[in-house]
Amino acid sequence: MEPIDKAIDLSSLTVANSFSTEEKTYKCAVCQDRGIVMVSPDTCAICQCQEQRKLERLMKSSQITPAFRAKTFANFTLQNRPQTIINMFRCAKDYADSFADIQQLENNWLVFLGEVGSGKTHLSMAVANALLAKPVPVLYFPHVEGIKELLKYFQQKSEANIHDRVDKMKNAEVLIWDDLFKGREKPTDWVLELVFEVINYRYLNLLPTIINSERIDYQLLEIDKAIGSRILERGKGHTVIIEGQACNFRLQ
Ligand SMILES: [Zn+2]
Predict the structure, then answer these.
(1) Considering the entire predicted model, what is its pTM?
(2) What confidence score (pLDDT) does residue 244 get?
């Protein structure tokens, strides 16, 4: 008699356990994570939660940090800012709002050049977050950290890692290159080659690219004419240059 009692106890325990864990782990109460819902006895539809899941996957693959995820147009301060900054804001907003049309153009890049602390990164992130919400996939590449990582792979001779990273940068639907050529020193030939490989590929394939840099137009050309001229050409129509205290503004 004893073994039967034990068996009954065990099975009831298992049922109770599996029931409570399942209840706790549902991300979506509507479809219970099946991704589909029955709309009539013989028709089903994709659950609303799937849009959200897609968005979450896009956010994750964009490599945008949580701090930058919070940068939006709404929390960019326009009060008491020079006209050039207001123009940069409008340029960014127009790019995000009209992205579907701009994407089709040859000159479909967004370029912010000049003064440190003027909000170039904030507005680049605001565009990125607005595109992600559409949803358009984006890839974020912070120059200093990104180059450091690639250089580490280079020193480790992990060609596969470099290839994988560079390939993602070349083919991203939208690439955001933050702080291109940051630093006082002239970039090494290795860095220039890498930047050219990505920029040239995106230039030739008309892939939307968002670039911000402390180096202004002639400085980019001085560093590398091939890289600089490609950026300036694709950015025509959506380039803002913020210079010195005078804050010269140019929107071609
Ligand atoms: Zn669902």
Answers:
(1) 0.80
(2) 63
